[in-house]
Amino acid sequence: MKDVIDDLRQRAKKKPKRIVFPEYEDNRVLKAVEYIKNEGIADPIILTKDNIDGKRQDEFANSYFERKKSKGITLEQAKDLMSDPIYYGAMMCRYGYADGFVAGARYTTSSVIRTALRCLELDKAARIVSSCFIMVVPDCVYGEKGVFVCGDCGIIPYPTSSQLASIAISCAGFAKDVLDIIPRVALLSFSTKGSSKHVEVDKVREAVEIANAENSGFLIDGELQADSALVPEVAAKKISNSEVAGKANVLIFPNLDAGNISYKLIQRLAKAKAVGPIVLGTKQPCSDLSRGCTVEDIIDCTAITVLRAQKVITNTATN
């Protein structure tokens, strides 16, 4: 488990990026930032209400107002929002003053996601904003030697088939870019390849068809029960000619109930490391935190945000 996390941190150190931390009143954040700075994982920017630049705040407020005035927001409301470090920090990312932000130690997940949706640019290729976790399970032979990407466990309660397909592709891209693995994506269900008939099974099956029709280049299969997705011996009995079944390392859950419950069960019962939720679908990288997060969790989410920022900058330079 330690090797995977250490690798993320070491790779982040090679090209540290400017990461904003808007929760200056949280001692866990302050301790994490001190470590991050000393180790060179990122170039941290701690925002407080006292170090918000007035001119830049006006710039952000005017920009936000112009984009949102059709929805009834006033300039005064926009200025008030930009006095909040999380909104100001997100706008720093949007306009290139920072490369990503990490929040959620005090802000709720809904607040972090709302800010990301309102302030960051959306990735048109992803089409929706979703999330994933990296799960590192000790002494596990399944997945990528115990490493999994799980989505969506934090944002979309009841995704449609189209949304599930987008989640699958986003999670696969994340696994490839951040974990540097070949993603094998399983869309999970209580059915394996038609073993049960139900409208929810149809939804998952349709999502697989949509995802594969996009020619994303990723290995995506379903609908699969969890054991069919993970265990080669079970997959061999139930399925033939699948490059994913029995070898899945990216697990896509049919709804938020299943995803959230599953990752927390894995975390607690298998003593797994859960890193996230990582927000997917925005051009500028953002990581959410659990309000029960540890200092180590903040450091790990920061390393992931740096790695994603590295990829964004590389792609921009290439294009």
Protein architecture, described:
- The protein is an alpha/beta fold and 319 residues long.
- It has 2 domains: 1-119 and 283-319, Rossmann fold, CATH 3.40.50.10950; 122-281, Isocitrate/Isopropylmalate dehydrogenase-like (Rossmann fold, 3-Layer(aba) Sandwich).
- Helices cover 48% and strands 15% of the residues.
- The chain has helices at 2-14, 27-39, 54-68, 75-81, 85-94, 109-119, 161-179, 199-213, 226-230, 232-238, 256-269, 295-318; strands at residues 18-21, 43-46, 100-103, 130-136, 147-151, 184-188, 219-224, 250-252, 273-280, 286-288.
- Strands 2-1-3-10-9-4-5-8-6-7 form a 10-stranded mixed sheet, with helices on both faces.
- A hairpin with a 5-residue loop joins β9 and β10.
- α1 crosses α12 and α7 packs across α8 (199-213).
- It is globular, with a radius of gyration of 20 Å.
- Residues 313-319 have low confidence and may be disordered.
